[in-house]
Amino acid sequence: MEEMREGVIVKGIGGFYYAREKTGEVHVLRAKGKFRKQHITPTVGDQIRLTPAFGDEHGWVEEILPRQNLLIRPPVANIRYILLVIAPEPQPDFSLVDTMLIMATRQSIQPALIVNKCDLDESLFETVRQEYGALDMPILQVSAKTGQGVEELRGLLRQGICCFAGQSGVGKSTLLSAVTGLELKTGEISKKISRGKHTTRHAELMFEGDYQVLDTPGFSLLELWSGMEPIELKNYYPDFAPYEGQCRFSPCYHYAEPGCAVLEAAKDGKLGQERLKRYHQLLDKVREAWRNRYD
Order of strands across the sheet with 139-141? Predict the structure, then answer.
């Protein structure tokens, strides 16, 4: 019997798991029965201990090491950065950006905003800095065409498992190819998946040199508001934090209450009016989900 080794699951199909050691060797594995009894499913991105195949037999997933985070749809674990890519074309969907930032925070994933195609229009980067500059996250101005910002992006990609997300046409695949030589098949935030429909594609962890990039069929936002009390939503807006405790009423939803410090800050130009408007739209969604939580 070979001694246990360590690896990372790069793909899982039909009950078989493909795990890669640091040496690059890939093993085909089955999961031990104990995981089923514990209601644990090995997931792409999991760091594991394994025993390699013996003869013609497959190897075994012996132990799943503690996870930093875990997404359900797509089922992936241990993401270091989710790279939210926007561009001057197509027109940026900032409501989607806000929603993805909340998802990342809830899942303990570090977000980064990548303003791509900056060679077409540099004004978008300034808009993004004004909207999101108060948040503790990298904001990069990048162009795959000119090479601007590519080195900074490489620095993020070297820090652990990363995945790209964003609207179709913002240049995620082109950007990734320019930085690492890898090619994403899709990587979109799928409207179909967001409505709860299924896909046959599987998440896969790709390697190239120092880079680890997840290629996923999409990110489901279907369950994002499940179980969230409406008053919690404001906690995912770090730019509101300096004004917490200064409102006339407590708790304050920062919606339409008199004497609200957040509303006053937006009126005075200290907070983005558009960001606050999108917060109100999301708050309406959270309230609706909360009202319907037992349906």
Answer: 139-141, 110-115, 79-86, 161-166, 211-215, 204-208
Residue-wise burial string across 168-181, b where 16 or more C-beta atoms lie within 10 A, e elsewhere: eebbbbebbebbbe
Q: Nearest 10 degrees: CA dihedral of 169, 173, 177, 182? A: -170
Mean pLDDT computed over 243-253: 95
The Cα–Cα gap between 275 and 277 comes to 5
Mean pLDDT of 196-212: 74
**Is residue 221 domain-resident?**
no
Q: What is the pTM of this model?
A: 0.87
What's the mean pLDDT in 94-108?
A: 93
Q: Beta-carbon neighbour count of residue 280 at 10 Å? A: 12
pLDDT of residue 178: 86
**143 belongs to a structural domain:** yes
Q: Which residue has the higher pLDDT, 42 or 190?
A: 42
Range of the domain at 79: 71-215
Check whether residue 61 and residue 78 sit in a common domain.
no
Tell me which residue has tokens 């090491």. Answer: 65
